[in-house]
Amino acid sequence: MKSEAKTVEEYISELPDDRATQIAQVRKIILANLPHGYEETMNWGMITYQVPLSVFPDTYNKQPLMYAALASQKNHMSVYLSGIYTFEDRQKRFHEAYKETGKRMDIGKSCVRFRKLDDLPLELIGQTIASLPSSDFVQYVKHVHSTSKRRKD
Predict the structure, then answer these.
(1) Domain CATH for 136
(2) Within-domain flag for 23
(3) Is the sign of the CA dihedral 61, 58, 130, 27 positive or negative?
(4) pLDDT tens digit string along 29-79?
(5) Cα separations (Å) of 57 from 16, 68, 138, 142, 150?
(6) Total structural domains within the chain
(7) pTM
(8) pLDDT score of 2
């Protein structure tokens, strides 16, 4: 369910009441833990936390570098944690910590799907969001980008 909303508030107001409440609560956790340098905006039809193009314009798709996102889908809600999935060790630690919560894991390549707020380990989501400063994320992406450019040359 891709939204055409222009603002986060508009996006949330378009959701059914139960979804709006749950998305707003997850958003509150994300914002409380979001490191300096990321911005909250609407992009790709969902609430997105990204590195602004003014900070890092050299992305492969000319779009801001997405760190995380939050969305209401047809059959579930999702938290996208793109930032940690660029680092194999962070991804592994996240999966291990998630299992330790005892909550059912419903995880895709970069998304954590949940049907109700009780299914989501909010404390872990907050810790994960807080764990990667934007400068470290950008440095890593720059390194990967320069390495792949050299391979092509």
Answers:
(1) 3.90.1150.200
(2) yes
(3) negative
(4) 999 999 999 999 999 999 999 999 999 998 888 999 999 999 999 999 999
(5) 36, 18, 10, 11, 19
(6) 1
(7) 0.91
(8) 73
